[in-house]
Amino acid sequence: MNNKRQQILKWQQQGHIKSQDLGKSLEISQANITHKQWFEFISNTLVLFGLASLAVGVIFFFAYNWYDMSKLLKFALLQSLLAISAVIYTQINRQSN
Predict the structure, then answer these.
(1) 3-state secondary structure of 13
(2) What is the pTM of this model?
(3) Residue 17 domain flag
(4) Would residue 60 count as lying in a domain?
(5) What is the DSSP string of 17-62?
(6) How far is the CA of 49 from the CAs of 36, 37, 45, 65, in angstroms?
(7) pLDDT in tens, the chain (97 residues)
(8) Is 28 part of any domain?
(9) Is 79 domain-assigned?
């Protein structure tokens, strides 16, 4: 969509489109960002920030309590992270093939 806008602005600079017709040209070609697209962008950004906050919270929880955990719990936690990483890797690898 950004390429459409750039192309229309380029045509306007070259004189193919009159300055007073620029707004109409952008509207007809749907090169302007709609309210729905802005909403989707903001929604996805907020979800990303929420997930990042959750991940940081989990990391800080374990970092604060690390010395109070038993060695078996530390080992189990690290092994479960390794197993989850392996499962995610195989799922991504399977989807790409």
Answers:
(1) helix
(2) 0.58
(3) no
(4) no
(5) S-GGGHHHHHHHTT-SPPHHHHHHHHHHHHHHHHHHHHHHHHHHHH
(6) 20, 18, 6, 24
(7) 578 888 888 888 888 888 887 888 787 787 778 889 899 999 999 999 999 999 999 999 999 999 999 999 999 999 999 999 999 999 999 988 7
(8) no
(9) yes
